[in-house]
Amino acid sequence: MSIANVINDYNKRLEQALYSNDNERIQKQHSKGKLTARERINLLLDEGSFVEIDRFVVHRCHNFGMEKKKIYGDAVVVGKGKINGRTVFVFSQDFTVFGGSVSKAAAEKICKVIDLAYKTGAPVVGINDSGGARIQEGVDSLAGYGEIFLRNVRYSGTIPQISIIAGPCAGGAVYSPALTDFVVMVKDIANMFVTGPDVVKAVMGVETTKDELGGAEIHTTKTQVATYAAVTEEDAYAWVRELLNFIPSNNAEGPRIIESRDDPNREVSHVYNLVPSDPLKAYDVKKVIEAMVDDAYFFELQENFAPNIVIGFASIGGIVVGIVANQPLHFAGAIDCKAAVKAARFVRFCNAFQIPILTLVDVPGFMPGIEQEHSGIIAHGAKLLFAYSEATVPKITVILRKAYGGAYIVMGSKHLATDINLAWPTAEIAVMGPEGAVNILYKRKFANLKKEEVALARKAAVEEYRQNFANPYVAAQTGYIDDVIDPKDTRKFIYKHLEYLLTKRDSLPPKKNGNIPL
Fold it and tell me: What is residue 46's three-state secondary structure?
C-alpha cells in the first residue's frame, strides 16, 4: 500500500473518530438543552489547547450484537489542555454514543487521564453525562467503575479533582463525582441519585421527579453533594475556570499567588460601620471579608448550604487563603450539624493543598435542641475539631465579637495549634455569654432580692462579668490571643503574618491515617 493510500486511510479513520456522532444525534442532544462532549471541552479549555488521547479506542463487547456497533472513541472524549495557561486533564462523556454508558474501554480511557494527571501533578476535570454502566458488558462495566473510584480515592489530596454534572448521573456512577473535591451541577439538565423515580415509586410507593430526587437545587441546599448550581453549561465551565485561579495544580505546589495592586497594608476603617458592637445585633460577615481581601473579591463556595457558616477563597497581598467565617445573619452564626461538616471538609481541602486558612470568629456556640442532638451534632462538631487539629498549613484566626464555649475552641483556637490568634477589642471570649453566665453565677443572690431590684442587679453583674471575663485581654494575658488589634489594621496584620508563615514547617505523628468521626 502506497504512502498516499495509508494517509488517505488515516484521514478517513480520523474523520470517523472526530465526527462519530451523526447530525441527528447531535440535534437530539441540543434539543435537550445540552452540548456535545467536544463542545463542552472547547468551552472549558483555552482555545486550541486540547490534545486528545485514545481517540481510536473501541469497546470489546461481543454480546447482544454489540460487535456490529463499534464507534471510535466509544462514549467518552479524553485528553489534556490548558485553563488560563495551566495544564489540566479532562474527560467528557458523550451521551450521543450509547447514551454515554460506561464500558470497560471507556473506563480505561478515564483511568488513563486520571493517572496522567497524577503523574504530572495537574488537576483533572470530569464532565459527566451518562446513562450509567453499559448493561451489555455486565461485570466488566462495573469493574471499570471500580477502577475509577480507586483512583479518585488514591489521588485525593494530591491533585484537585473536579466534577461537572451536565446530564444524568445515576446508580454507582454518582460515587465518582462524590469522591471528588468539587461538584458543579447544571440546573434543569443535571441530576444525581442512587435510585431513580421509577424505583422509588416501585419500592416505596412515592411519586417523585428527577429534580425533586436529585436535582441541582437539592444537592446544593440539602445534601452538600454539589458545590455550585450553574444556571447554564457555559456558567458551569466559567465557574470551574475561576475556581482553578485559586487552587494549586497539586499538593506540592504551595498556595497560589495572584497579582493585585491592592495595598496589603491598606486600612479597613469602614469595618467599624459593618460590625455592631452590640453582640446581639446581626450583620453580614461577607462584607467584612470583602473589606479585608484584595480587590474586595471573595470566591464563595456552597453559598446555599448551611449559610450560618461561610467558606471560600480570596487573596490578601496576592497570597491565596481559604476563609472560614461564622455568619451572624443566620442562626446568629451558631454551628449546627451542616455547618460543621461544610467547614470541616473545606479545612481539610485547604490543608491537603497547602492553602493557608483564615478563620473569622463570631460564634455564640453550637446550635442547641433535640433535632441537632439527634442529628449528631456531637459527631459532626467533632469533625470540625478534627479538621482544624490535623491541619498543618498556616492558620490565622481573628475573633471579631463572640467566641463562647466549645465553639470558641473549635473555630481555630490557639489550643488547636493555630499559629496566630488575633482579637478585636470587641471580642468576648468566655464559657458562655455574660447574660447566661450571670443567671447561673448569681442565681441565689437574685432570688433574695426584691423584684424591682433584680433588673438593676443583673445589669451590674453582666457589666462586671464582661469587664472581668468576657473580653480579649484575659485571653491575651495567658497567650491564648497573640494580639488585640484595631479592626482597621486587620488586613495589614493578616498579611504580615501570612508572609513569614508561608515557610512554616509542621508535621503529624507517623501513622497510616487518623480516624475522622462519623
Answer: coil
